[in-house]
Amino acid sequence: MANFNGTKCISCGELFKDNDDVVVCPECGTPYHRECYNKEGQCINTVLHQSGESWKPEYDSDSFDSTEAVKCIRCGSENPPEGLFCNKCGMPLHDNANASRPFNNMGAGFGGQTQGGAFPFGNQMVFDKESEIDGIKIDDYVKYTGKNSMGLISSFIKFGKFGGKIAINIGALVFPEFYFFYRKMYKLGVLFMTLTLLFSIPSMIVLGQSGMMNMTLLNTNFDVQSNSFTTLYSLSSYMMMGIRFLCGFFGTYWYFLTAKSDIRKIRSTVTDDYEAGVQIVAKGGTSMTAVIVAVTVYCVVTLLGFYLLNLKFA
User: Fold this and answer.
1) Which among 31, 78, 106, 151 is least buried, having the fewest CB atoms inside 10 angstroms?
2) Are residues 178 and 56 in the same domain?
């Protein structure tokens, strides 16, 4: 349970005390005396609701000297010296008091949500949009990633703060030939679509001769039961599996590197913050158009391959 001692109820202006019955707004986290909240009927901290930010403790200047404040080992929030628990995250303040505090300068409250899943050993560090990963603000990564940013940013924090390069990416695992086009990583998209097409040739031969959708697409006399062909088929299948696992485990890390490179280029050339943000959003995000083009090219190349094989072995 969080300790709000030293902060004020914004309804009545009184400091919270040990035995006060305190409730918090479920959206922004602003604390109230229960009676005050019932009297107001709703949260009156409209500034936070409009900005989408979370409440942060602001202590009365007479309640404690900021130079004596105790910083939380978990999230870095400042607390009054007599406090037992962090006013932000509820962490005990005086246990392990001499332990290192690597996150004290990172702020608290990333989008009002704790990114505990990004950290080892179950730690629940919190970050805000001004926190940095490899010298780039989280806010820029959020602008760049666009859709599904929370899960990606969680992995970015893990890569940047704790090392490692592995994160499960279902899209890249199942559709490596198309995922990178979706995320505008066109060079990787072309590479893995080309590899997928090459290693799919044996399976396409089998499907083409056996028929697809009641159509025989390959009128050849390949002996698909021969030892040499079955060996080639097995090798190509293992290679395809390897490609899928490679992309599934490292696809998000490659996206992190791409995002970092693109954002740095934009920030180094564009001085206006608003214009830089616009360019970051445009450079990142997703593209269904690219996916549709990639699928079309994939199908055309596959059909063209059947046609050329039929001509050669007719």
Assistant:
1) 151
2) no
